[in-house]
Amino acid sequence: MKKRPIIIDTDPGIDDAVAIAIALFDETLDVRLLTTVSGNVSVDKVTDNLLRLLKFWGKSVRVAKGAQKPLIQIREDASSVHGSSGMDGYEFPAVTYENLIEEHAVVALRNELLESKEKITLVPIGPLTNIALLLSTYPEVKEKIEEIILMGGSAGRGNYGVLSEFNIGFDPEAAKIVFESGLKITMAGLDVGLKALVYHEDSLEIKAQNKTGEMIYALFQKYRGGSLKTGLKMYDSTAIAYLLNKDLFETVYTHVSIETEGTYTKGATLVDLKGYLKKEPNVTVCLDIKQEEFSVWLKEALAKCI
Ligand SMILES: [Ca+2]
Q: Which residues form the Inosine/uridine-preferring nucleoside hydrolase domain (predicted)?
Protein backbone atom coordinates (compact mmCIF):
# COMPACT_ATOMS: atom_id res chain seq x y z
CA MET A 1 0.00 0.00 0.00
CA LYS A 2 1.18 3.48 -0.82
CA LYS A 3 1.79 5.44 2.34
CA ARG A 4 0.90 9.08 2.71
CA PRO A 5 4.02 11.22 3.23
CA ILE A 6 3.84 13.68 6.11
CA ILE A 7 6.11 15.93 8.15
CA ILE A 8 5.20 16.75 11.75
CA ASP A 9 6.36 20.04 13.25
CA THR A 10 6.14 19.70 17.01
CA ASP A 11 7.02 20.91 20.53
CA PRO A 12 6.70 17.79 22.73
CA GLY A 13 4.80 18.18 25.02
CA ILE A 14 2.75 15.31 26.42
CA ASP A 15 -0.14 15.51 23.98
CA ASP A 16 2.44 15.85 21.18
CA ALA A 17 3.97 12.56 22.33
CA VAL A 18 0.61 10.81 21.94
CA ALA A 19 0.06 12.30 18.48
CA ILE A 20 3.57 11.34 17.30
CA ALA A 21 3.17 7.80 18.64
CA ILE A 22 0.02 7.35 16.59
CA ALA A 23 1.58 8.77 13.43
CA LEU A 24 4.79 6.75 13.65
CA PHE A 25 2.99 3.43 14.09
CA ASP A 26 0.19 3.99 11.61
CA GLU A 27 0.61 1.71 8.62
CA THR A 28 -0.75 4.28 6.15
CA LEU A 29 1.59 7.14 7.07
CA ASP A 30 5.20 7.75 6.07
CA VAL A 31 6.69 10.25 8.53
CA ARG A 32 9.50 11.72 6.42
CA LEU A 33 10.91 14.20 8.91
CA LEU A 34 10.19 15.65 12.34
CA THR A 35 10.93 19.29 13.07
CA THR A 36 10.89 21.01 16.44
CA VAL A 37 9.83 24.49 17.49
CA SER A 38 9.88 26.49 20.69
CA GLY A 39 6.48 26.36 22.37
CA ASN A 40 5.53 24.15 25.29
CA VAL A 41 9.13 24.57 26.51
CA SER A 42 12.37 25.75 24.83
CA VAL A 43 13.34 24.30 21.48
CA ASP A 44 16.36 22.58 23.05
CA LYS A 45 14.14 20.82 25.58
CA VAL A 46 11.45 19.82 23.08
CA THR A 47 14.13 18.49 20.71
CA ASP A 48 15.62 16.38 23.50
CA ASN A 49 12.13 15.14 24.36
CA LEU A 50 11.49 14.13 20.77
CA LEU A 51 14.84 12.34 20.53
CA ARG A 52 14.04 10.46 23.76
CA LEU A 53 10.70 9.35 22.32
CA LEU A 54 12.25 8.12 19.07
CA LYS A 55 14.90 6.15 20.95
CA PHE A 56 12.17 4.67 23.15
CA TRP A 57 10.39 3.46 20.02
CA GLY A 58 13.56 2.50 18.14
CA LYS A 59 12.55 4.78 15.25
CA SER A 60 15.17 6.36 13.01
CA VAL A 61 13.14 9.27 11.60
CA ARG A 62 15.35 12.33 11.21
CA VAL A 63 14.86 15.30 13.51
CA ALA A 64 15.73 18.92 12.65
CA LYS A 65 15.76 21.58 15.32
CA GLY A 66 13.87 24.76 14.46
CA ALA A 67 12.99 28.22 15.71
CA GLN A 68 14.09 29.26 19.18
CA LYS A 69 11.65 32.15 19.46
CA PRO A 70 8.45 33.45 17.87
CA LEU A 71 8.91 35.83 14.95
CA ILE A 72 8.19 38.98 16.94
CA GLN A 73 6.56 38.26 20.29
CA ILE A 74 8.48 37.69 23.51
CA ARG A 75 6.93 34.67 25.16
CA GLU A 76 7.00 32.45 28.19
CA ASP A 77 6.52 28.72 27.68
CA ALA A 78 3.86 26.28 28.90
CA SER A 79 5.94 24.38 31.45
CA SER A 80 3.09 24.88 33.93
CA VAL A 81 1.06 22.46 31.78
CA HIS A 82 3.70 19.95 30.72
CA GLY A 83 6.21 20.10 33.63
CA SER A 84 9.63 21.76 33.53
CA SER A 85 11.11 19.30 30.99
CA GLY A 86 7.95 19.52 28.87
CA MET A 87 7.50 15.77 29.27
CA ASP A 88 7.72 15.02 32.98
CA GLY A 89 6.44 11.82 34.52
CA TYR A 90 8.45 9.06 32.81
CA GLU A 91 12.12 8.22 33.33
CA PHE A 92 13.57 8.02 29.83
CA PRO A 93 17.18 6.88 29.30
CA ALA A 94 19.71 9.68 28.71
CA VAL A 95 19.15 11.54 25.46
CA THR A 96 21.36 10.69 22.46
CA TYR A 97 21.66 12.60 19.22
CA GLU A 98 21.97 10.09 16.37
CA ASN A 99 18.59 11.10 14.89
CA LEU A 100 19.35 14.83 14.99
CA ILE A 101 20.54 16.27 11.69
CA GLU A 102 22.65 19.40 11.36
CA GLU A 103 20.36 21.45 9.15
CA HIS A 104 18.00 23.93 10.70
CA ALA A 105 14.37 22.77 10.53
CA VAL A 106 13.51 25.39 7.91
CA VAL A 107 16.30 24.17 5.60
CA ALA A 108 15.48 20.53 6.30
CA LEU A 109 11.81 21.17 5.47
CA ARG A 110 12.81 22.87 2.23
CA ASN A 111 15.13 20.05 1.19
CA GLU A 112 12.67 17.30 2.07
CA LEU A 113 9.85 19.01 0.16
CA LEU A 114 11.85 19.91 -2.94
CA GLU A 115 13.49 16.49 -3.16
CA SER A 116 10.22 14.60 -2.71
CA LYS A 117 8.58 13.11 -5.80
CA GLU A 118 5.12 13.40 -4.26
CA LYS A 119 3.53 16.27 -2.44
CA ILE A 120 3.84 16.11 1.34
CA THR A 121 1.26 16.97 4.00
CA LEU A 122 2.52 19.19 6.82
CA VAL A 123 1.12 18.56 10.30
CA PRO A 124 2.14 21.38 12.64
CA ILE A 125 1.18 20.67 16.26
CA GLY A 126 3.07 23.56 17.86
CA PRO A 127 3.41 27.30 17.16
CA LEU A 128 3.69 28.03 13.44
CA THR A 129 7.09 29.79 13.52
CA ASN A 130 8.97 27.21 11.44
CA ILE A 131 6.23 26.94 8.83
CA ALA A 132 6.01 30.74 8.47
CA LEU A 133 9.78 30.99 8.08
CA LEU A 134 9.70 28.18 5.52
CA LEU A 135 6.98 29.81 3.41
CA SER A 136 8.68 33.22 3.61
CA THR A 137 12.21 32.00 2.91
CA TYR A 138 11.52 29.30 0.33
CA PRO A 139 8.12 30.06 -1.26
CA GLU A 140 8.99 27.59 -4.03
CA VAL A 141 8.14 24.76 -1.61
CA LYS A 142 4.45 25.64 -1.75
CA GLU A 143 3.81 23.55 -4.81
CA LYS A 144 5.20 20.51 -2.99
CA ILE A 145 2.88 20.90 0.00
CA GLU A 146 -0.27 18.78 -0.35
CA GLU A 147 -2.01 20.50 2.54
CA ILE A 148 -1.49 21.71 6.09
CA ILE A 149 -3.44 20.05 8.89
CA LEU A 150 -2.67 21.93 12.08
CA MET A 151 -3.59 21.92 15.73
CA GLY A 152 -4.34 25.45 16.82
CA GLY A 153 -6.86 28.22 17.10
CA SER A 154 -10.43 28.38 18.29
CA ALA A 155 -13.80 29.38 16.91
CA GLY A 156 -14.74 30.28 20.46
CA ARG A 157 -12.68 31.29 23.45
CA GLY A 158 -9.01 30.73 24.20
CA ASN A 159 -6.69 28.80 26.51
CA TYR A 160 -3.80 31.28 26.23
CA GLY A 161 -5.64 34.59 26.18
CA VAL A 162 -9.36 35.28 26.47
CA LEU A 163 -9.77 34.58 22.75
CA SER A 164 -6.42 33.01 21.78
CA GLU A 165 -5.36 29.39 21.74
CA PHE A 166 -1.76 28.60 22.78
CA ASN A 167 -0.16 27.62 19.46
CA ILE A 168 -1.57 30.64 17.63
CA GLY A 169 -1.29 33.05 20.56
CA PHE A 170 2.38 32.11 21.06
CA ASP A 171 3.30 33.37 17.58
CA PRO A 172 0.39 35.23 15.95
CA GLU A 173 2.48 36.77 13.16
CA ALA A 174 3.65 33.32 12.09
CA ALA A 175 0.07 32.07 12.10
CA LYS A 176 -0.98 35.03 9.95
CA ILE A 177 1.65 34.17 7.34
CA VAL A 178 0.55 30.53 7.24
CA PHE A 179 -3.20 31.25 7.18
CA GLU A 180 -2.75 33.78 4.36
CA SER A 181 -0.47 31.49 2.34
CA GLY A 182 -3.17 30.28 -0.05
CA LEU A 183 -2.33 26.67 0.83
CA LYS A 184 -5.05 24.18 1.69
CA ILE A 185 -5.38 24.43 5.48
CA THR A 186 -7.39 22.51 8.05
CA MET A 187 -7.54 23.80 11.60
CA ALA A 188 -8.22 21.42 14.48
CA GLY A 189 -8.38 23.80 17.42
CA LEU A 190 -9.93 24.05 20.86
CA ASP A 191 -13.42 23.44 19.48
CA VAL A 192 -12.43 19.79 19.11
CA GLY A 193 -9.37 19.64 21.39
CA LEU A 194 -11.43 20.40 24.48
CA LYS A 195 -13.65 17.42 23.59
CA ALA A 196 -10.87 14.97 22.66
CA LEU A 197 -10.66 13.50 26.12
CA VAL A 198 -8.93 10.65 27.88
CA TYR A 199 -10.61 9.61 31.13
CA HIS A 200 -9.20 7.50 33.96
CA GLU A 201 -10.64 4.22 32.59
CA ASP A 202 -9.27 5.02 29.11
CA SER A 203 -5.83 5.70 30.57
CA LEU A 204 -5.82 2.28 32.26
CA GLU A 205 -6.78 0.60 28.98
CA ILE A 206 -4.02 2.51 27.19
CA LYS A 207 -1.51 1.52 29.87
CA ALA A 208 -2.39 -2.18 29.56
CA GLN A 209 -1.97 -2.24 25.77
CA ASN A 210 1.80 -2.00 25.38
CA LYS A 211 5.07 -0.37 26.45
CA THR A 212 4.05 2.91 24.79
CA GLY A 213 0.82 2.84 26.77
CA GLU A 214 2.78 2.44 30.01
CA MET A 215 4.97 5.41 29.08
CA ILE A 216 2.03 7.60 28.09
CA TYR A 217 0.15 6.63 31.24
CA ALA A 218 3.14 7.82 33.29
CA LEU A 219 3.23 11.13 31.39
CA PHE A 220 -0.51 11.56 31.94
CA GLN A 221 0.08 11.63 35.70
CA LYS A 222 2.02 14.91 35.26
CA TYR A 223 -0.05 16.42 32.46
CA ARG A 224 -2.09 19.44 33.48
CA GLY A 225 -4.16 19.66 30.30
CA GLY A 226 -7.22 18.65 32.33
CA SER A 227 -7.52 15.89 34.95
CA LEU A 228 -8.14 12.17 34.50
CA LYS A 229 -11.44 12.66 36.34
CA THR A 230 -12.79 15.32 33.97
CA GLY A 231 -10.75 14.18 30.97
CA LEU A 232 -7.23 14.93 29.71
CA LYS A 233 -7.30 16.99 26.54
CA MET A 234 -5.55 15.32 23.61
CA TYR A 235 -5.27 18.52 21.56
CA ASP A 236 -2.52 17.45 19.18
CA SER A 237 -3.97 14.04 18.43
CA THR A 238 -6.96 15.74 16.82
CA ALA A 239 -4.77 16.84 13.90
CA ILE A 240 -3.62 13.25 13.38
CA ALA A 241 -7.20 12.03 13.83
CA TYR A 242 -8.35 14.39 11.08
CA LEU A 243 -5.55 13.18 8.84
CA LEU A 244 -6.56 9.55 9.33
CA ASN A 245 -10.29 9.71 9.95
CA LYS A 246 -12.10 12.82 8.77
CA ASP A 247 -15.46 11.22 9.57
CA LEU A 248 -14.85 11.92 13.25
CA PHE A 249 -15.26 15.65 12.60
CA GLU A 250 -17.86 18.22 11.70
CA THR A 251 -16.20 20.95 9.66
CA VAL A 252 -16.94 24.21 7.91
CA TYR A 253 -14.94 25.80 5.09
CA THR A 254 -14.81 29.49 5.85
CA HIS A 255 -12.60 32.52 6.27
CA VAL A 256 -10.23 32.70 9.24
CA SER A 257 -8.24 35.86 10.00
CA ILE A 258 -5.51 35.99 12.62
CA GLU A 259 -5.68 38.98 14.96
CA THR A 260 -2.20 40.46 15.32
CA GLU A 261 -3.08 43.98 16.45
CA GLY A 262 -5.72 43.60 19.17
CA THR A 263 -4.98 45.14 22.55
CA TYR A 264 -6.44 42.10 24.31
CA THR A 265 -7.08 39.71 21.45
CA LYS A 266 -3.70 39.22 19.76
CA GLY A 267 -3.53 35.64 18.50
CA ALA A 268 -7.29 35.20 18.17
CA THR A 269 -8.44 33.15 15.17
CA LEU A 270 -11.47 34.96 13.80
CA VAL A 271 -13.54 32.15 12.35
CA ASP A 272 -15.90 34.25 10.24
CA LEU A 273 -18.96 32.01 10.03
CA LYS A 274 -21.24 34.83 8.92
CA GLY A 275 -19.10 36.66 6.39
CA TYR A 276 -18.59 39.88 8.37
CA LEU A 277 -15.05 40.27 7.01
CA LYS A 278 -16.16 39.81 3.40
CA LYS A 279 -13.22 37.58 2.58
CA GLU A 280 -12.94 34.31 0.69
CA PRO A 281 -12.84 31.00 2.61
CA ASN A 282 -9.28 29.91 3.36
CA VAL A 283 -9.53 27.27 6.09
CA THR A 284 -11.47 24.10 6.84
CA VAL A 285 -12.31 24.52 10.52
CA CYS A 286 -13.10 21.52 12.72
CA LEU A 287 -16.08 22.65 14.77
CA ASP A 288 -17.07 19.40 16.48
CA ILE A 289 -15.82 15.87 17.09
CA LYS A 290 -17.59 12.58 17.78
CA GLN A 291 -16.25 12.12 21.28
CA GLU A 292 -16.91 8.46 21.91
CA GLU A 293 -15.68 7.45 18.47
CA PHE A 294 -12.55 9.54 18.97
CA SER A 295 -11.85 7.75 22.25
CA VAL A 296 -12.21 4.34 20.59
CA TRP A 297 -10.05 5.48 17.66
CA LEU A 298 -7.33 6.81 20.00
CA LYS A 299 -7.06 3.55 21.92
CA GLU A 300 -7.01 1.47 18.74
CA ALA A 301 -4.37 3.74 17.23
CA LEU A 302 -2.15 3.50 20.31
CA ALA A 303 -2.59 -0.28 20.33
CA LYS A 304 -0.53 -0.37 17.11
CA CYS A 305 2.52 0.96 18.98
CA ILE A 306 5.16 -1.24 20.58
CA1 LIG B 1 2.11 20.69 20.69
A: 6-294
